[in-house]
Amino acid sequence: MDRFLFLTLDGLSRGAVLAAFALALVLIWRAGRIVNFAQGAMAVAAAYVAYSVTAATGSYWLGFAAALVAGLLLGVVVDVAVMRLVDHRSPLNPVIVALGLVLLIQAVLGMVYGNEYLPARAPFSRTALTVGGTAVLSPYDLFVFGTVGVVGAALVWIFTRTAIGLRMRAAAFAPEVSRLLGVNVGGMLTLGWALASGVGALAGMLVIPTELGLHPHAMDLVFVSAFTAAVVGGLDSPPGAVVGGLGVGLLLSYVSGYAGGDLIPLAVLALLLTVLLLRPGGLFAPVTARRV
Amino acid sequence: MSATRAVAPPARHAAEPVRPGRSVPTVLRHLAFATGAALVVLVLSYQLDSFRNFQLATVAAYLCATAGLTVLTGLCGQLSLGHGALMATGAYTLALVQNAFAERGLTAGGLLILSLAVAVLATVVVGAVVGVAAARLRGPYLAGLTLAVAVVVPALTVTFNGVFNGEQGLSVPMAPAPRALGPYFPYERWQLWTAAVATLLCLVLLANLVRSRYGRAFRAVRDDEVAARLAGIHVARTQVIAFVVSAASAGLGGALLAVLAQSVSPGAFGLTLSLFLLMAVVIGGLGRLAGAVWGAFLLVALPDLTHSLTSLFTLSPAAAQRLEGNLPLAIFGVTLIVVMIAAPGGVQGLLSRLTGTLRVRWRHHRS
């Protein structure tokens, strides 16, 4: 029972990060109907920026801030310099271009930092505190929960309470009408990319210390898991992404706890396959007809 | 049998403009092309040195996979990021079968044909499973699923250590070149012959498929699923067929790579390989078999070129190693983005546009 409790809490902590990353995917999907396959690589790039800043200044928190800024800027650059130029009539094109970005970003990171694992420091201890003889959460897990909670709340606040959030939703929902009403639709899309990329960078900063370390491919499996989470929740639904993320996190934690960590990739694939075959729209998607 | 009936005859006349002066049957034309290509390869195999022979054989192996992928993505509109994993399936199956033969003392060279067939069959089975799921998915969902396949399959080789021997991989016992060719026959030349024959066979089959009613059904499904369905095409079945055919080609390509390298390991079949294949297909021109040839050449030539490029500069060994491993990736990535934005038809698209204008000018000139 103790073990089950520990795995559950560990899974929730894992899931919180996946939820944040899935949220980043959902943000771009809602803004521009693009699944950003380069999200993982962009997050790793931001984490490498943090690594450099931390190495230069000795402060984890300066590096953390640098990663967030790098994430936001990278989102802007990717949208303005690449994605805006792509012909979006075929849904394949943005996906292919995003994959080109993956190759490019990972190659540049490999050239600058080398293709070996670099140590990634966690700001808090990762050994679990014990309550009444039972191992529960580590300080780092609490930090993860707090950060993801703050970011989620901030996103909700931006999208529901601020004028700019309203404009972003309008630009995504009805671009032509919004343009007529004076909304800078392109600018809103860029802002969406920046926000999503920033959240992705944050998720990367949170997840990399819990894995093997910093590597150009460090986020490959995380991306697949987060994509699964986003699909479980329905790509269109931010609450769905959070629930999906927590669910996938729990599943992965149970699988690695009871069956072995090697099986995690297989479990992700099985879950993704099951969800896509049984309910391709996700658990939270409203029933819609495909546009003819 | 019902599959052939369900695929609509009406598409036949719509998609195929009647071209006067082209009375040679398609099959014969493709066979003539293949014979010509075989002769060129034969001549080249004597002109080139062993290393170039081996490289050309590698091009042939990649060509199987890129040709299969271009049929799937370019003609049927399904994006697969899992073809690297399908190649791994073919390669590992071939390795297991060859090892099983070797353990039983069967070393005849002709058994390779059987091993290749088993490898293709195994990939067809895997491709059918993924394809059935894929037929229900669109755009980014399909890309996501196949991406998961690409990430997971190399991990499986480590999980099932006992069969696949983990990161080490398996060695592939190969019979030497037939003794009838003489004692000093270079092994690389024999490898090139083997790979070229298999690849040309695969290409002829694919080219005929593309020009058949199936190929037209693929294109109809790609352009407009609803219209295709109205024309009597079974959309899901067509997509599964496309995926299976494409998987079979990828499996053959992977098996040939294993034959050439005489070993298989998971490192060679990671996500990067899948992205490379996609890049090759996009650069060559989506949906064009000739484009797949360009792409396959590029996959082998570009790392070679960057190698000679980096050796021009004097770098510290560590920096040189980093640059050499990653520069081809960066160039592939940039090319993928630039081609997608500037010339979505790829190399072959540019070429056919060029020959098209020339032909029009020529006609003007004559009249």
Main attributes of the structure:
heterodimer, A: 292 residues, mainly alpha, ABC transporter involved in vitamin B12 uptake, BtuC, 72% helix, globular, B: 367 residues, 77% helix, membrane (chain B)
Using only C-alpha atoms, the radius of gyration of chain A works out to 19 Å
CA gyration radius of chain B, whole angstroms:
21 Å
Number of domains of chain A: 1
- Please describe the biggest sheet of chain B, giving its number of strands, its sense, and whether it closes into a barrel: 2 strands, antiparallel
- The number of helical elements of chain B comes to 16
The CATH top-level class label of chain A: Mainly Alpha
| Uncertain stretches of 5 or more adjacent residues of chain B | 1-18
User: Largest interface, by Cβ-Cβ below 8 angstroms: which chains and how many residues each?
Assistant: A-B, 50 and 48 residues
How many strands appear in the DSSP assignment of chain A?
2
Shape designation of chain A: globular
Distance N to C terminus of chain A: 52 Å
Order of helices and strands of chain B: HHHHHHHHEHHHHEHHHH
Q: Indicate the mean pLDDT of chain B.
A: 84
Query: How many extended strands of chain B?
Result: 2
Using the 3D structure, state the CATH architecture of chain B.
Orthogonal Bundle
Strand order of the largest sheet of chain B: 1-2
Any idea what the CATH architecture of chain A is?
Answer: Orthogonal Bundle
What name does the CATH topology of chain A carry? ABC transporter involved in vitamin B12 uptake, BtuC
CATH uppermost class of chain B: Mainly Alpha
Structural class of chain B: mainly alpha
